[in-house]
Design a protein that fits this description.
4-stranded mixed β-sheet, alpha/beta, Alpha/beta knot, 2 domains, 60s Ribosomal Protein L30, Chain: A, 15% strand
Length: 341
């Protein structure tokens, strides 16, 4: 029996191509120019590219590039905490805030790795962006939300810089500088001060009065966090932070160099006005909860207090620092310009 001929609705011959079908579970491909979450950035490679970033969009579909023929970063998104994870290295630090970033660029531009800023900060940091282009450093224009993620708060003031940590001066080199009269007082010793905002305020006052160093025991000296650097308003770039291993030996060496060791207290002690302070002094500041430790207090030549009404137990340590420094520098003229390192 003859088979019926195939009609128009019959299956196509074996060689005919079938239209590609996508499995039901497969998602549609992204449209041209779409973005995916940005991964960790490659800082300092001069390209501004990010690991896991989307491929460049077709001509005319993506953002314009900064500089002439140099692929400098320009995206307006930083990714979901990717840069915070990127900042895991202890040898790097994030700096944010207008004056802190300005001081960083002025004092040690070679330590800058990458710059993130809002578009409206472009005129303010024109020289910084030109430096980034000239030295092939990545920079990005990012929105306020991502600047908050990068800086860890709302007080970023439109800019965040990833930079190498400033090198610290060694105790031996610091003492040699004092001995050679290249570094002058007053000096501050932090004994248990841990709050980053207090540290920032102390560094700001220290820079204002020309302190030759902020010293502390290495195990207890607080790190220069992003918050401390911002509150210091650039002061951290002008004052050496000196970490010591043996406080007793270091204070003994400072005494031999002719410096007076003065411990601050909120209770007993000579009133500040009667203490006769000068710039040749090491001022020990204790924590607000515990005060100066007995071990260091016993090494002091004098204990001083700031007299008050008694309505509150004590002053904030950063406020007290400013008052005592002002008294030590009173009548001595313009402060010395000590080297940062």
């Amino acid at each position: 029996m003859k088979k019926p001929a195939r009609g128009p609705s019959s299956s196509p011959p074996p060689h005919a191509s079938r239209p590609a079908q996508r499995p039901p579970h497969q998602k549609r491909p992204p449209v041209a120019g779409g973005t995916r979450p940005v991964g960790g950035t490659r800082a300092g490679d001069g390209t501004g590219a990010a690991a896991g970033a989307p491929r460049p969009a077709p001509a005319g579909a993506g953002p314009k590039r900064e500089g002439k023929g140099k692929p400098v970063a320009e995206r307006d998104e930083a990714g979901d905490g990717a840069e915070a994870r990127r900042h895991a290295s202890k040898s790097e630090q994030k700096v944010h805030g207008l004056r802190a970033c300005t001081a960083l660029f002025a004092k040690r531009p070679g330590d800058i790795i990458r710059v993130y800023l809002s578009v409206n900060r472009k005129p303010t940091f024109k020289a910084l962006l030109e430096y980034c282009v000239a030295h092939r450093l990545g920079f990005q224009f990012v929105d306020d939300e991502n600047l908050q993620k990068l800086s860890g708060g709302i007080h970023h003031e439109g800019i965040v810089i990833l930079a190498r940590e400033a090198p610290r001066i060694s105790v031996d080199d610091w003492l040699a500088g004092i001995s050679a009269k290249q570094i002058g007082g007053p000096f501050l010793w932090l004994d248990g001060v841990q709050n980053p905002h207090n540290l920032g305020s102390i560094l700001r006052s220290a820079a204002h009065f020309g302190c030759g160093g902020v010293i502390g025991e290495a195990a207890h000296l607080p790190p220069l966090s992003a918050a401390a650097l911002r509150v210091a308003e650039g002061g951290a770039e002008s004052v050496a932070l000196v970490a010591v291993e043996d406080p007793v030996a270091t204070l003994g060496a400072l005494k031999k160099l002719g410096l007076r060791i003065v411990s601050t207290t909120s209770r007993a002690g000579t009133t500040l006005a009667a203490a006769g302070l000068s710039r040749e002094v090491v001022l020990i500041l204790g924590s607000e909860a515990e005060g100066v430790s007995p071990r260091l207090g016993r090494l002091a030549d004098t204990q001083v207090r700031i007299p008050g009404s008694g309505a509150v137990q004590s002053l904030n340590v950063a406020v007290a620092c400013g008052i005592v420094l002002a008294e030590a520098c009173r009548g001595t003229g313009e402060p010395a310009k000590n080297p940062r390192k």
